[in-house]
Structure formats: structure tokens, C-alpha cells
Amino acid sequence: MKFFFLIPSSTIRTSTLKKVKSVVGGQERADVFSRILLNLYRWKDRCDAKSVVVLYLSHPEENLTFTIPLDLISSPIENELEATKFMINLLNSPDELGITLEKQDFSSLLRNLAADCNLFYLTSTGRDISKLDEDSIKSNNFCFILGSQVDLTDAQEKDLSKYDPTLISVGDREYLASHVVSIINHYLFTKFQ
Ligand SMILES: C[S@@+](CC[C@H](N)C(=O)[O-])C[C@H]1O[C@@H](n2cnc3c(N)ncnc32)[C@H](O)[C@@H]1O
Fold it and tell me: What is the C-alpha separation between 106 and 72, in angstroms, rounded?
């Protein structure tokens, strides 16, 4: 079984030079993604399922998918600095990390994921994650889709709705994406440890 986490970003670009300061304080908000990665990495050895992070750069000049199986990461990501450095390497030289890159639009990416996984869309108005039917969750790979610093666009939500995703919530309030992935993992850990 695999858990996919799909997070689109319209602001992260591959064309700009990345340094630690430009990731941490930069307008592209690549730091949002490096924090998500750090939090997911912390959970990777705690349950049997394999986690795969899918970063989608939705800027029209990018349309680029980075597929990152956490098991493939050879140097540990244990703090913000290591996560930031990983992010810089990922965007500057993904080949050196053995990360797969694909040029595709969002709807093709969703079609590929839907062929392999049950899709879950994270939104505060969704169904409480703890109320999900355990058996349906254990029967397949599944993919959690969430916004990074902002929600998915209307067009992305429209594409996603074609696959009839399950809408799930981790609470009434809006949380940071990096917190949401920790809460999802806490839930998965209690079900799959
Ligand atoms: C930082 S939030 C986006 C914040 C805000 N809605 C906006 O667009 O500025 C990032 C993502 O985390 C997910 N999220 C945040 N709070 C959530 C909650 N309580 N339940 C489920 N998902 C949540 C949503 O997918 C959201 O797009």
C-alpha cells in the first residue's frame, strides 16, 4: 500500500536560482513545501505503508510534476535546514537525487493518480477524517490532495471533481499545509501501525 500526497504550487519556479535565504524568505514560498516534506519525512518509518510526495508546479511555464518516494531520499531530512537544502537540490538538479520529473497538465496528473489510488481532497468543510470507513481505506493506495499556501484553484477543483474524491477535514479551522499532513499521518499511524 502507498500513500500519495499531492500538493500543487503556482508560485514555485525551476527557472530561478535557489539559495537557503531565497527559499526561507522568498516570494515563491518554496519554504511551505520544504516544511511539508520535513513533516512527512518524520512519519515515514512509523507505519508500514510507503509515502510518496507529489509536488506539482502549476505555473503555465512549468506544468511539472516531481514524484518523490520518501524511501528514495538518501540523506536524512531531520530539520528545517536539511529540508531547505533538499528543496534547493530538488529544484536545481532533480536528476542527482534520482527524482522523476514529468511535464503534464493537472488533469493528466489526476488521471494517472486516479488509476492507481482512491483520491481524498483535504478541505475544512469535508467529512471528519476520523469517521472514515477503515475497510475502504485499507483496500487500496490512496492519495491526499491539498493546497500549499493557498487552496486549489477553481479550475483545479473542477478537474478533481471528475474523479469524485472523498472530501475530508481535519477540523473546522484552517491549518497550515505542513500541519495538515502531520494530522493525516497521525490518523494513518493510529490505523496502520
Ligand atoms: C494554508 S491552507 C490554505 C489556506 C486558505 N484556505 C487560503 O487559501 O489562503 C493549505 C491547505 O491545507 C488544507 N487544509 C487546511 N485546513 C484544513 C482543514 N481543517 N481540514 C482539511 N484540510 C485543510 C487545504 O487543502 C488547504 O488548501
Answer: 24
From 174, 178, 179, give the residue whose CB has the most ligand 1 atoms within 8 Å, as the site to mutate: 174
- C-alpha distances (whole Å) from 51 to each of 4, 72, 142, 182 are 6, 10, 10, 13
Cell numbers 494513518 correspond to 188
Name the domain count of the chain. 1
Domain range holding 143? 2-192
Q: Ligand 1 atom 12: the closest Cα is on which residue?
A: 177
Q: Is the pTM of this model over 0.90?
A: yes
CATH of the domain at 35: 3.40.1280.10
Give me the residue label for grid cell 469517521. 131
30: how many CB neighbours lie within 10 A of its CB? 25
CB 184 within 8 A of CB 170: yes
All cell numbers assigned to 45: 518509518
pLDDT in tens, 47-86: 778 999 999 999 999 999 999 999 999 889 999 999 999 9
30 vs 150: CA distance, rounded Å: 13
Q: pLDDT tens across 86-138, in order? A: 999 999 888 889 998 999 999 999 999 999 999 999 999 999 998 887 766 66
**Nearest atom in ligand 1 to 176's CA:** 1
Nearest-5° Cα angle at 131, 146 to 122 = 10
| Ligand 1 center to 170 CA (angstroms) | 10
